[in-house]
Amino acid sequence: MRLIKTVFFFALVNFTLFVQGQRSDSYWQQHVDYSIEVAMNVENYQYQGTQQLIYTNNSPDELTRVYYHLYFNAFQPGSEMDVRLQNINDPDGRMFVEGKSRIAALSPSEIGYLHPTSLTQDGEQLAFNEEGTVLVVTLAKPIPAGGKTTLEMAFKGQVPVQIRRAGRNNKEGVALSMSQWYPKMAEYDFEGWHADPYIAREFHGVWGNFDVKLTIDKDYIVGGTGYLQNPQEIGHGYEATGTNVKKAKGKTLTWHFVAPMVHDFMWAADPDYLHDTLKMENGPTLHFLYKNDPGIIENWKKLQPKTAEAMEFFSKNIGKYPYEQYSVVHGGDGGMEYAMSTLIVGGGNYSGLVGVMIHELAHSWFQHILANNELKHGWMDEGFTEFIETLCKNNILGKNEQYPFVSHYKSYFSLVASGKEQPQSTQADRFDHNFAYGASIYNKGALFLTQLGYIIGEDKLMETIRKYFADFKFKHPTPNDIKRTAEKVSGMELDWYLTDWTQTTNTIDYGIKEVSANGNKTKISMERIGLMPMPLDILVVYTDGSRETFYTPLRMMRGEKKNPYGEIKRTTLPDWPWAYSTFEFSVNRPLSTIRAVVIDPSQLMADVHLENNVWQPSN
Ligand SMILES: [Zn+2]
Fold first, then answer.
1. CA of 571 relative to ligand 1 center, distance in Å
2. Do residues 139 and 66 make contact, with C-beta atoms less than 8 angstroms apart?
3. What is the predicted pLDDT for the residue at 25?
4. Burial (CB count <10 Å: 0-12, 13-18, 19+), residue 333
5. Ligand 1 geometric centre to CA of 435 (Å)
6. Do 313 and 303 touch, CB atoms closer than 8 A?
7. Chain-centre distance of CA 6, in angstroms?
8. Are residues 383 and 409 in contact, defined by beta-carbon separation less than 8 angstroms?
9. CA 389–ligand 1 middle distance (angstroms)
10. CA–CA dist 169, 431 (Å, integer)
């Protein structure tokens, strides 16, 4: 293990603990330091820039090649994104209108592009080749394990008409939604290269530091990732309150941002943005940039204290938000998470607006601090985000529902019923149906955690989430990392759970086969019908109103959870080994006294046939 020697003097938060906290030799992640200068022409949406990238090879391997993402090249007729849009079963309605791909219809002045015009490595010219949205670069000299190199690039780009995520003039009139806009080094980590083409979704990036100087028409107001370094030259609501701004003369302003330890950099700009800030007492400064449209202002004002409440909720339940700033920016085509910021549409009703904000803010943890690979394990960011978002909404929006995850379970059950389910471990672009991707990654992904709470206990689940954050922040956690964390917290073995739930489409179906008299006692016969194993909580309700529970641990989990129904007596039965399809136990009361037997009264276990989970006497 080696340390990355980076002194990042403008970091407002001390990240040295991260640097010393790298995992064993088998894990590594690269490191990037970007300095980007870019000038945007707001008349024709073209931009030109230079980028200096100091690349640190923390891998044990010598690198002879590197790859950059050139995401804007996806927005061209004939691109992989365009073609996939035309041949997927259920294309995204934002991109496919009246039977036609919107990308296919783009004219040369409307397409997106991002083209390097020169590239050097430590001053030496490099050969490079664009392959759609990926730039393949053969290095002049290999980067040794532990070595550093400086890559300097000039590039030119054109912002596409807004089709998906980034773009110009979105449907609510935001001029520039600039995500995936710069040549972005692909990640090479302990799993190898991730130079994935941009087809539909989503992202994986290299952790590092960004220094971005953006020159743009002086009337445009900018928000996004990064701390503004020259607020007194910019104004537009960034200046210290009550101070005078000294703007440079001329038609443009140069905005200077820095962002420490992030893996992406987004910005958005519009001449009609309003800009409000809210300094949290024990938290970051929140920025809100939204169109000066009388119809939306009230909603955006109401949104601000709720953003602070959500920030507090996540910091308390996951781990402290590590940056000094978060920006909610009006733009894009729905809601999308970025480093220290989000781009959301802003014209809908208040509950939609606050819902999207809470979801995207939750992604600050599950993606922009815990940076799993979204193309490979989208359930870890979307599913975990859905989980904590739902708890947050239940709490701060005063919902207080007893079963806040009902819609997630319904979505998963209808996915199973559709017959179109693919394993969650399917690469994101290889899902045959967008709806199956959504139901699996978002909803079944949330169920990974709700159900984990059923298996290990809900207090252990929340402890797992906090430990997962503490151990894997600013890294690229994998499915095994959340599983190992839950194992360490609970003392159980959970490989079976991770494997069946995320790598197969096996389903859970347990049932009550028979309840019968056995003298003065009652025999309860259970069966396992589905392939997926689970431990069971069984509730028995008697005619006198009293209740007791029985618990069958799964043998292969080698452990037991605490009684989740503390007020009700629980009997722990012998383990139920998975291969046995039936299990019997006895209740010390006569059959006539039993009103009902119920498998998993919490309904946290995603049993696909709930009808056989309840037994009641037939008369
Ligand atoms: Zn999301």
1. 41
2. yes
3. 58
4. buried
5. 14
6. no
7. 27
8. no
9. 10
10. 30
Beta bridge partners of 87: none
- Phi and psi at residue 321, to the nearest 5°: -60, 125
Tokens 């599950």 sit at which residue? 366
Q: Residue with structure tokens 């689940």?
A: 461
Distance 353 CA to ligand 1 centre (A): 14
- Expressed in angstroms and rounded, the spacing between residue 268 Cα and the centre of ligand 1 is 19
Q: Using the mean position of ligand 1's atoms as its centre, give its distance from the Cα of residue 361 in Å.
A: 9
The alpha carbon of 177 and the centre of ligand 1 are apart by a number of angstroms equal to: 17
Distance CA 532, CA 236 (A): 57
Q: For residue 359, how far is its CA from the centre of ligand 1 (angstroms)?
A: 6
Residue closest to 359 by CA, chosen among 450, 232, 446:
446
340: left (phi over 0), alpha (psi -120 to 50) or beta: left
Q: Answer for the pair 149, 121: CB distance below 8 angstroms, yes or no.
A: yes
User: How many whole angstroms from 518 Cα to the centroid of ligand 1?
Assistant: 53
Q: Considering just the CA atoms, what is the radius of gyration of the chain in Å?
A: 27
pLDDT along the chain (619 residues), means of 10: 36 41 70 98 98 98 98 98 96 94 98 98 97 98 98 98 97 97 97 96 96 98 98 96 89 98 98 98 96 97 98 98 98 96 96 98 98 98 98 94 96 98 97 97 98 98 98 98 98 98 98 97 98 98 98 98 96 98 97 98 97 92
pLDDT tens string 311-327: 999 999 999 999 999 99
- Residue 450, classed as helix, strand or coil, is helix
pLDDT of res. 3: 37
Say how far apart CA 619 and CA 608 lie, in whole Å: 27
Query: CB of 182 within 8 A of CB of 53?
Result: no
Q: How far is the CA of 193 from the centre of ligand 1 (A)?
A: 24
The pLDDT value given to residue 23: 42
Q: How far is the CA of 414 from the centre of ligand 1 (A)?
A: 20
Distance 336 CA to ligand 1 centre (A): 7
* d(CA 210, ligand 1 centre) in Å: 24
pTM of the model: 0.94
- Measured distance CA(362)–CA(311) in Å, rounded: 8
Max Cα distance, the chain (Å): 96
Structure tokens at 206: 């290299």
Distance from the Cα of residue 72 to its chain's centroid: 22
Q: What is the 3-state secondary structure (H, E, C) of 526-563?
A: EEECCCCCCCEEEEEEECCCCEEEEEECEHHHCCCCCC
pLDDT at 12: 38
Calculate how far, in angstroms, residue 230's C-alpha sits from the geometric centre of ligand 1: 32
